[in-house]
Structures are given as C-alpha cells and as structure tokens.
Amino acid sequence: MRTVLLAFMLALAMAAKAQVGGQSFEQMKEKYKSASAEERARMDEQYRDVEAKLKAQQVTNIGGVAFGTPREKALAMLRNKYGASEYNQENDIVSFRDIKYAGYGFDAVHFLFQSDGVNSYFYSCIFIKEAKTQQEAVSGQQMLNKVLSEKYELYKVTTEKGFDTYGGGVSPLWDGHWYNMSDNFYTALHTDIMQYEPELVKIFGNQCAVRLIYGPYNYVKEEF
C-alpha cells in the first residue's frame, strides 16, 4: 500500500503544485480567469495529465448510487440492491445490516441524506465493521486500507488516542477541471477506529469498530 504522509496525493498533484513558468498553481488558476481562448487551451494542455490522475481518484458513487441522488430515487436503488432497510427508515439516515461490499464484509452501513427543506440528497455513507478488541480493529482497518489503496492514494494521521486514520480520494463535488481544484475537494473518504463506551461494551461485547466514511459532500448550498 502506498501511504502518503502529511501531504495528500503528493505524487499525483506534484505537477499541479509546482511552479509553471515561475508561477504557482494558485497563480495559474487566477491567470486562467482572464486568459484568452488560446492561452486557456495551452494551460489546459499543461495540466491534462494531472487532471486525468485526479479524476481517477474521484469518488462518484456507492454501489451504483451516485452521490447527490435524490432520496426517493436512491432508496429505490438501495432496496433493490440490499433489500429492506432495517432501521432509521423514516429519517435522513437509512441503514442496512450484514452487507458485503467490494468483497469486504460489514456489520452495518448507513446512507445519509441532506435536506434543503424540500428535497433530500445522498451526501454521505458510513460502513462499520465491529471488533472485539483493539488489535482486531487495527487488523481490520489494515485489510480495508489494502483494498482502498488499490484505487486511492492514502495518507495517514495518528489521532490523540493513538489510532491511525487514513484518508484519500477526490470529492464528487469537483467538476473535473484543474482550474477549479481546491483543498476542499481532497480527502473524500477516510477510515478510522471508533472506541465504544464501557457501558456499550458490556452490552454488545465489542470494544471498537472500524469505519469507512465517504463524505459528507454538501450538495445543499446555503449562503448569508
């Protein structure tokens, strides 16, 4: 697994972050706004490879359900794929148990919807794998990261509790144009380890859970 430490997608975005003709990537983006059609075509060609590599890292859907899909349409697709949801059916979270996805078994998966007051849109997804012990959780996370790293460049950060979290991918909100790429679109997904409270451990017997989290991606735009 290729793990990029401290700088997300350094290998992929190096050319974009480097200076071109003495100008930084941010300066090139600003220059593009007022450039002529000929100048824009030349700049697009300069960043064509970087743009393609970023698109290859872009998150677009889960199980064929595209992020940003209206709730009712997404629910029909999810139920066709996974059967009846088991809980949270009337809320903005729809959950399924015992799901196998991309060859990896999960104890639960939660599909989250964001509402603008009229419509709701699929904007986040959380896969959960329970673990009896911390070591089991760490092993489970490593296995999951191995699968994810086949597609995504991942970076690692150690949390205050001593667990590692791995992030990568490009947000589905990015429109695919290099000149509209920004830091907000990085780290579209991440894995982490969640510790349960002692009371829950006594009831359910699991100390931890490995989580794979996509998003959230804000499709509802709110401005002052």
Please sum up the structure shown.
The protein is α+β, with helices and mostly antiparallel strands and 224 residues long. The chain has helices at 10-17, 25-34, 37-46, 48-56, 71-82, 134-148, 198-204, and strands at residues 3-5, 61-62, 65-66, 93-101, 104-115, 120-131, 154-158, 164-170, 186-195, 208-214.
Can you walk through the features of this model?
By secondary structure, the protein is of the alpha+beta class. The protein contains 7 helices and 10 strands. The strands form 2 sheets. Strands 1-7-8-9-10-6-5-4 form an 8-stranded mixed β-sheet. It has a two-stranded antiparallel ribbon with strand order 2-3. A hairpin with a 5-residue loop joins β7 (154-158) and β8. It is globular. The N and C termini lie far apart (43 Å). The model is unreliable at 1-16 (pLDDT under 50).
Order of helices and strands, N to C?
EHHHHEEHEEEHEEEHE
**DSSP helix count?**
7
Span of the ends, CA to CA: 43 Å
Strand count, sense and closure of the main sheet? 8 strands, mixed
Which regions have little confidence, pLDDT < 50, spanning 5+ residues? 1-16
Total DSSP E strands: 10
> Biggest sheet, strands in spatial order?
1-7-8-9-10-6-5-4
User: Taking all residues together, what is the mean pLDDT?
Assistant: 87
Q: What percentage of the residues does DSSP assign to strands (E)?
A: 25-35%
Query: Globular, elongated, flat, extended or rod-shaped: what is the shape?
Result: globular
Radius of gyration: 20 Å
Give the fraction of residues assigned to helices: 25-40%
Instruction: Determine the structural class based on helices, strands and strand pairing.
Output: alpha+beta
